[in-house]
Amino acid sequence: MFNVAILGSTGSIGTQTLQVLENLPGYRVYGLSTNKNVNLLSEQIQRFCPKMVVIGDEDKADRFKNSFNVFTASGNDGLCELAADTNVDIVVNALVGFAGLRPTLAALEAGKKVALANKEVLVSAGHLVMKHRSQIIPIDSEHSAIWQILAGKRREDLASIILTASGGPFFQEPQNLQKVTVKEALQHPNWSMGGKITIDSATLMNKGLEVIEAHWLFDLKYDQIEVIIHPQSIIHSMVKFKDGSVLAHMAPADMRLPIQYALTYPDMQHDTTLPLDLLSLKPLTFAQHDPVRFPCLNLAYHAGKIGGSMPTVLNAANEVAVDLFLEEKIGFTDIPQIITSVVNKHQPINQPTLNQLFNVDEQARKTAVYEASQLIERND
Ligand SMILES: NC(=O)c1ccc[n+]([C@@H]2O[C@H](COP(=O)([O-])OP(=O)(O)OC[C@H]3O[C@@H](n4cnc5c(N)ncnc54)[C@H](OP(=O)(O)O)[C@@H]3O)[C@@H](O)[C@H]2O)c1
After folding, report:
1. Is the domain 144-379 a CATH 1.10.1740.10 member?
2. 44 lines ligand 1 (CB under 6 A)
3. CA-nearest residue, atom 30 of ligand 1
């Protein structure tokens, strides 16, 4: 029996992980966590009877601690405690953002297998996280696809990888993106996901973060990582080999598949989702991305190639800008503008320590808030 802790069990990946676990013999839910959604956490406690839960938000934790008949911890320290608990075998990191970094390191340092959805952690601190390479299994569908294609292949035969991107809701229109609304940006054509990643998909920053994620997970140079728009989201990624052949991974657009694979790796279980019906598929098409309408992808390549603390800054500025967009304080095209200003002001640190990364992240967030306020003032 494997004990599983789900960090972020009330989110999109977290709830889908619980759906997978309901049908997976040999796996038990040991721990759950939320930031603020204590109502859903309470339902999950009744259904899955965990031994420990964590509430990220300290105020909510103070109010709700005694209402659950289960050991309850709080804050980022609580997440670290759950991640490193001696009874836990697998940690599913379904948190969003830089807040997942310390719990990830706590789990890795305690020797846990980590099924990692929280890509911002690899983007911000890839060199620290990948010291524990053998314990990490990706959940992101593109990286899971590449992971599966590469299984059993010789490394020297690999030429490059091709990450597919749906293109998001604005792939073809409107031409002018400044006036798109939050509601429109949250309408992803193929996936139902949390707010932050849905906006990242619309700006193509999600693909940029995935490029940096792939650099760390598969130890690739940036010129070995290509991106292609594939609006149907059926091919989840591809690998080009040195003889020119390309292997593609195809599956329905359903995150429960890569989640299940990460949990059971290297075993593969029977599928519990609808199988891929090739005869009913729309034609599979491919296109290049438009760097003028969607500058975020190239911004991520730029930050990734500079390396050191620069991707941490890119990520922090993006997190702030996406929050401000979701709060309707800035426009859609202000997101890349803010990130560009913050990245341009940063003097990168090579091989930053964890403390340096926390300082860099904090400073970048302050700079992003300042740049946003200047932009709002100019727009008024
Ligand atoms: N969703 C997908 O299909 C998908 C696909 C591939 C990769 N990913 C990646 O997976 C990660 C999670 O995405 P998601 O879409 O599942 O996000 P989400 O729906 O927003 O869920 C995030 C989870 O983390 C909790 N959380 C957020 N901030 C926290 C904090 N500061 N401290 C403690 N807990 C916190 C949330 O609690 P509350 O419920 O209280 O907010 C929620 O349980 C992201 O890195 C994303 O890029 C997602």
Report:
1. yes
2. no
3. 35
